[in-house]
Structures are given as C-alpha cells and as structure tokens.
Amino acid sequence: MLALMLSLNVSANEELRQYVDENTQRLVQQLNEEQGLFESDPEAFYKRMDQAMTDFVDFRRIAARVMGRYARQTSPEQRDEFVERFKRSLFESYAQALVGSADDFEINVKSASVNPNNDDRGSVDMEVTSDSGNRYQISYSMYRNSDGVWLMENVIVEGVNLGLAFRDRFAQEMESRRGDVDEVISNWGDAVASLNLDDEMDN
Q: Model's pTM, two decimal places?
C-alpha cells in the first residue's frame, strides 16, 4: 500500500511538472512570435497574450488576494475593473523587458510537488538562465479548480513572494489614499511601477 501511494504521488508530481513545462514553453514561444506586434500594436499584443495566459493563470484569484481584506469593501464592478488594471499593469511593467530578451533566456522546469495533504495544491520549481549565464530560481504556486484544471495562483522569484509584495502595496495605497478604492484602482499602474521588485530580488 505504501509503495502504491508513493508511486501515485510520483506520478502526480511528474504530471504537474510536465503540464507546467508545456504551458510555460508555449507562452515563451508565443511571446517570441508576437514580438513585432508589441511594437506595432500594443493593444493587440495585450489581447493575444491575455488570451494565451487565461487558461493557465488565474488572474481573478490573484487580484482578489492582492486586494486582501479590502476586497469585501468593493462592488463586483470594482473587482472586475481591478482585475483588468492588475493584468494591464503587469504587461506594461514587464512586457518590454520580456520582449527584449525573449530569445535570450532558457527555462528549465525542474520539479513539481503536489501537496500530500491536499492534492488540489502544488508547487513547481524552475530555473531561468539568461544569455549571460545568470540563473534565477522561480516557483509557481498552483491549484486545481473545480473543473480539474491546474492554474497558477502565485509566483515566487528569488525568494520574493510577488503576491505578498503586491498585497502590501495595495494596502499601502489604500492607507495613503484614505480608503478610496476607486482611486487606488485607477492609479494601480503607477503603484506597480513604483514597486521596485528588481532591487528586492537582488537583495
């Protein structure tokens, strides 16, 4: 029985690793293919990459966690608006860098681990190697939804929990803007731009 359980666990881990590897390489390939579109039509680029990521990244779940306890103060319309602002801020902050280096890095999805106490939760470790030889450790937090599909719900880069970093920034913005949710949502792009994650990862 123990051997069977271990075998099933190893199989589940490898299945998750392969799933993340396939989707990650697919997104990198599409990023390569859409490089020219980013320069000529950024809006079309955003829509195509958004569609490509929807089946792999749960932006709505991530955005809700970023809002944290403040989500209870918002209307469905405000939450929808924040999801879009959140996605847009990520593209605006990082798309230029990704497009500029899409051919200059390699992603190696190393291992996956399904939570033994909850087989709907898992983590996947990978290593990104730049053209100059720099290596970055990245971990995806994954969950399996009610349809049985694995989706990304958080990312940790070089020990920096991006979900927590964004949630802390949202709380700071709520405090500085005296609880005006609409103002925080409207200015979220600037808030993300001022969040210097590169320095945190370097540290």
A: 0.86
Token readout for 186 is: 């409207």
d(C-alpha 27, C-alpha 105), whole Å:
13
3-class SS of residue 15: helix
Condensed to tens digits (0 to 9), the pLDDT of residues 106-122 reads 899 999 999 989 999 99
CA distance 114 to 112: 7
Structure tokens at 136: 């970055």
3 state SS of 73: helix
Q: In what order do the strands lie in the sheet with 105-114?
A: 105-114, 121-130, 135-144, 150-157, 160-161
Report pLDDT for 199.
57
The radius of gyration computed from the CA coordinates of the chain, to the nearest angstrom, equals 18
| Number of residues that make up the chain | 203
* 151 CB-side CA count, 13 A: 17
Q: Model confidence at 95, in pLDDT bands (50, 70, 90)?
A: low
Contact (CB, 8 A) for 139 and 153: no
The mean predicted confidence, pLDDT, of the chain is 88
Helices (H), the chain: 2-33, 35-40, 42-54, 59-67, 76-101, 162-176, 181-186, 188-193, 197-202
